[in-house]
Input
Amino acid sequence: MPKFIGAARQFEVAGDVDAAAAAQFFWETVTHHYSYVIGGNADREYFQAPDSIASFLTEQTCEHCNSYNMLKLTRHLYQWMPQARYFDYYERTLHNHTMAAQHPATGMFTYMTPMITGGERGFSDKFDAFWCCVGSGMEAHAQFGDSIYWHAGDALYVNLYIPSTLDWHDADVAIELDSGVPENGDVRLQVLRAGALAPRRLLLRIPAWCRMNLRCVSMDGRSRSQRWMAM
Output
């Protein structure tokens, strides 16, 4: 997977369109044909035949490094074309795999997340287990804030519904985001400040799990149901 992250950077730095196509093809293939419901992928660190993961529900599924790197690759692809589906995948994997890969009491990390019925996660310890997934786990849990908000041109994107406050001094804009996700789908976004330099468009991702609800988004009492909504 890091090779395809490298391919993405090769396109961004050197304009290599073949490298971009390889990175895009890999992401599409993994997310559509090799990923479990939590967003993780692979069994025993291997890809099996495409569309066969139902036959590989074992105690050695979903290595966390895989998801860590898939989220990195997702961020690259989203920079090229900001489509909501990229952060639909990102959100699903972040909440269901990345956040579940750290023990809530000890702070230790998993290597695999078993998809087998009755499976139990194993966690690292302080001194005798420094796997690759411990290193990526430390990085992953320090990055929760890096993709909530993005900007490009005159637009500010809200990609993830994580409770947060954005105070962007250079653009003279501040917003506060209250969110019940993933416990519930209630989200409230309030613009605290918007000066003359503030982005003219505020783009909210309408999650895939919300798109069938015609009242999933409202502004001043008016319902909005677009895949992305510009305010």
Observations:
- The first helix runs from residue 2 to 14.
- Residues 149-212 form one domain.
- The chain has a mean pLDDT of 92.
- The radius of gyration is 19 Å.
